[in-house]
């Protein structure tokens, strides 16, 4: 698995956002960890004492490194690889599966995330676990429409411009975003590949960059972004607390964290239907459309393992965010959590 900047494009942030140590970063393969004992490379871990007195008793060590992959218990070292395989396998059918499974409802949820963000002109967005670019493209549409409205208002106010001056204002592609930029970061090469193909086909170019990277060890300097989004991504991360700390680190003071994720359904009737639909229908759709039952079984199981709204809110607060709130959508099937780095 190769990790690093895939294409920086003309994004100004990426030029400054060098990984904290290139040498160790590429050596570790999953991102550089400044504290060696926490490096997730099993071979490096095994030759490093786990405490001041060396190795801990095996049972304690085992408990400390176990986690879940859906309903399966796996070691923390294993989980990342398994999640990688899931998204490598579903990447080609990812977008069509989402439309089929949700009858397009996931699009509304993503639109609502953008409405909540309400980016200001010049916003620097980092979309982590950005996959095939759904949030990034919505962001670009939003800021472009916002900038066009502003430009029209200004042009109407300036009565004496020549037609050349007016045309010039419309032609400047970079400027059509009013200085806003989005960086899509994802750990999976296949998902990013699909996203880039989609961007090409739809003509998105300016203000968009793609980076291969781990939510738990982001390859960016501190205080870089105005907004951090993660949509349907954090559930798949091995150490959610580390991902939240990284989100806090890379945001500028005043920056906003926004997370769209499956949550706990708050209506008993919807909950029953949703359970039947999840366990009886979704894996079948996965098999029929994507030829992949297991990945879609993982999807529904991982949803049940994710902490409910209040618990996740506390985790966000523990990472240092303030004014943390959440909003349930579709009876809590998903929720948007928001927090600020103040
Ligand atoms: C591997 O990991 C992943 C892979 C991915 O592709 C995606 C993700 C991340 C996920 C997303 C980006 C979003 C994807 C969306 C979903 C997983 C679906 C979320 C589910 C819904 C919005 C629907 C919720 C359903 C209910 C509340 C229950 C209502 C259900 C029904 C009325 C149908 C009940 C039917 C049966 C129990 C069995 C018989 C039916 C059939 C065999 C036909 C199949 C039916 C349909 C396709 C209709 C589905 C119905 C709806 C969407 C109605 C929605 C209604 C409401 C929301 C109230 C990833 O991590
Ligand atoms: C369900 S997709 C969501 C994609 C996109 N955000 C959307 O809303 O459609 C989950 C994404 O999380 C990515 N992912 C999983 N673990 C990750 C990690 N540790 N760091 C970065 N991305 C990760 C996967 O590769 C996948 O692209």
Automatic annotation (TrEMBL):
Gene Ontology CC terms: extrinsic component of mitochondrial inner membrane; mitochondrial matrix; ubiquinone biosynthesis complex
GO molecular function, one term: 2-methoxy-6-polyprenyl-1,4-benzoquinol methyltransferase activity
Enzymatic reactions: 2-methoxy-6-(all-trans-decaprenyl)benzene-1,4-diol + S-adenosyl-L-methionine = 5-methoxy-2-methyl-3-(all-trans-decaprenyl)benzene-1,4-diol + S-adenosyl-L-homocysteine + H(+)
Record InterPro entries: SAM-dependent_MTases_sf, UbiE/COQ5_MeTrFase, UbiE/COQ5_MeTrFase_CS
Membrane topology, record value: Peripheral membrane protein
EC code: 2.1.1.201
Naturally occurring in which organism (per UniProt): Camelus dromedarius
Gene name of this polypeptide: COQ5
GO BP: any one term: methylation
Keywords, sorted A to Z: Membrane, Methyltransferase, Mitochondrion, Mitochondrion inner membrane, S-adenosyl-L-methionine, Transferase, Ubiquinone biosynthesis
Keyword presence, Coiled coil: no
Record's signal peptide: none
Localization (cell): Mitochondrion inner membrane
Source domain of life: Eukaryota
Involved pathway(s): Cofactor biosynthesis; ubiquinone biosynthesis
Keyword field contains Ribosomal protein: no
Protein name (database record): 2-methoxy-6-polyprenyl-1,4-benzoquinol methylase, mitochondrial
Family classification: Belongs to the class I-like SAM-binding methyltransferase superfamily. MenG/UbiE family.
Quaternary structure and interacting proteins, as annotated: Component of a multi-subunit COQ enzyme complex, composed of at least COQ3, COQ4, COQ5, COQ6, COQ7 and COQ9. Interacts with PYURF; the interaction is direct, stabilizes COQ5 protein and associates PYURF with COQ enzyme complex.
Primary role: Methyltransferase required for the conversion of 2-decaprenyl-6-methoxy-1,4-benzoquinol (DDMQH2) to 2-decaprenyl-3-methyl-6-methoxy-1,4-benzoquinol (DMQH2).
Positions annotated to bind S-adenosyl-L-methionine: 132, 186, 214-215
PANTHER family hit by this protein: 2-METHOXY-6-POLYPRENYL-1,4-BENZOQUINOL METHYLASE, MITOCHONDRIAL, METHYLTRANSFERASE
Segments forming a coiled coil: none
